[in-house]
Amino acid sequence: MRAYQIDCRQIRSYGDFIEACNKGFIESLGGKWNGNLDAFNDYLSWPEPSPCQLTILGAERCAKVLDYPRNERDETSLWVSLKGILLENKEWVHVTFQ
Q1: How large a percentage of the chain has pLDDT more than 70?
Q2: Quick one: which of 45, 46, 61, 69 is 20 to 30 A from 5 by CA?
Q3: In the prediction, which pLDDT does 73 show?
Q4: Domain count along the chain
Q5: pLDDT at 51
Q6: Domain range holding 22?
Q7: pTM of the model
Q8: Which pLDDT score, from 0 to 100, does residue 70 have?
Q9: How many Å apart are CA 32 and CA 28, to the nearest integer?
Q10: CATH code of residue 35
Q11: Burial of 12: CB neighbours in 10 Å, binned 0-12, 13-18, 19+
């Protein structure tokens, strides 16, 4: 099983999270994520062979930094939304939060 690490231990913003995801996972697949949540969901089904192991380093940091509403119409925290997307794609990625 192919393994990827997304290092979020030093993030200070959503932009930092996007950069960490690109460096740790998405660029190795030939992509470049811009922060769109639908696109994030799509990138999780790209790895070949599937499934792959994805480790999020600094998950507690993500929970603190990304603890604000997704948008004006949705009060759900951005981190809760991202974590949900990661967990809902278990057929493609096995996620570990550290």
Answers
A1: 97
A2: 69
A3: 82
A4: 1
A5: 86
A6: 3-97
A7: 0.91
A8: 73
A9: 9
A10: 3.30.370.10
A11: exposed
